[in-house]
Amino acid sequence: MLDSDYAEKAQCVAGVVTNSVLLYCIRCHTRTPLGAYKHLLTIFAVVDLFLCILHAFVEPKVIIVDHIFAVISGVFDDQRAMSIYASCFAVPFTLMNIHFLYRYWRIQKPHLIELFSKASFIFFLACIPITEMSVWYLLCIFFMTGDGRKEAIGLVRAEFEKKHGRSIGEGWILMDHWVPNNHYEKGRNDRNGYEDPWYALTLLLFDTVMLISILLATTLGVLTFNGIRSQIKLSSIKRNFELKLLFAATAQVQFFSKTLVPFVFVYIPYVCCLNLPFFSLPVVPIPDLTFLFISCFPLWDAVIVLLLIRDYRRALWEIGGGMIGRLRLTRSTSVNPTPESIATMTIINHA
Question: What pTM was computed for the model?
Fold first, then answer.
């Protein structure tokens, strides 16, 4: 097992812990009137928690050989498992835009914010990520199966066995961007063929979905930020509160935040893995780092919310302070035992 595999598992465990803590804080320590935003945070935390568990169970690995890009499950020998995994990690793209839409409406169009409390609108919003998941899944299961690409599959198998020291079944999805000449010309056995139009179209669709998500989130973020600055009617306290919530949201794209969590940990790995093999660009560190980065996303997504919302920071401080206090009490009792503890130990020793 590679060092990156151990790091991925550790990050999945940490992601489960941080998102569980976030759900607890949302449930028990939300003093600020967040309104429907509280429910959005709950949905984000539940999705991130699910993504951590899914990543740990599927154990995805990236293999890039020549013009071939493949994602392989280290556990399941079924292409549907990898297709489901890829489609689930497309959900954060949509959730980011819902997040920004809420912030934008809250500042610029407050009369529309009540829609987030209506069942029909919530159902409509839920259909958007479900639709995106379905499209992503169909693209994977129908256009990335590797049917008729025995040579490409053989290269992927050999590279996986060389790298991980074990064989694989059929739990892969792959894109072989260039059809070898021997696919149509007998007697030739080289990989200098021509571009496969189906894979080029699939790549274009993937890139289009990600680009639209980034542009929409950035646009809503800029409009919201400008709206906060221009509304002189807002009190200084409320203005600072809205800015903090905006910065919590913009940490999920690449705007006004030093962490750039999804942009660094999701968008960049996706774009590099999908596009670099197509253009024959160097990809040496990418296969090992891709899912190491992606597994960071649910963890740091929760950490950002916990640190930027004051109620949750206080809750963490109280929880941490309580644990430290109990630990110090235990140590002081063991070093300087009280009469009560001595009596208790005497009874135990004579029992």
Answer: 0.77
